[in-house]
Amino acid sequence: MWSRPESYFNELAAEAGDANAAMALGATYDPTVLAKLGVAGLGADVEKARTWYQKAESLGSTEATRRLAILANH
After folding, report:
1. What b/e sequence results for 32-44 when a residue is b if at least 16 CB atoms lie within 10 Å of its CB, and e otherwise?
2. Are 53 and 67 in contact (CB under 8 A)?
3. Count of structural domains within the chain
4. pTM of the full predicted structure?
5. Residue 29 CB contacts under 8 Å (≥ 6 apart), including other chains
6. Fewer CB near the terminus (10 Å): N or C of the chain?
7. DSSP string, 3-26
8. Cα(51)–Cα(63) distance, rounded to whole angstroms?
């Protein structure tokens, strides 16, 4: 089961090759994104963020490359 039910459709889309969906999933775990949004109640998970950003990068997202570089500091 998904740890975040709201991510279900994004996960399906990302696995089907949608870089934007993979980016969206990465952002839900990214401590930098969560802090900028002031999100409380969702724990950041750098490894999960990294995994989804790597997927997005493999699908051609240049933004994923930038976010991976930022995550390298965590």
Report:
1. bbbeeeeeeeeeb
2. yes
3. 1
4. 0.83
5. 44, 45, 46, 48, 49, 52
6. N
7. SSGGGHHHHHHHHTT-HHHHHHHH
8. 14
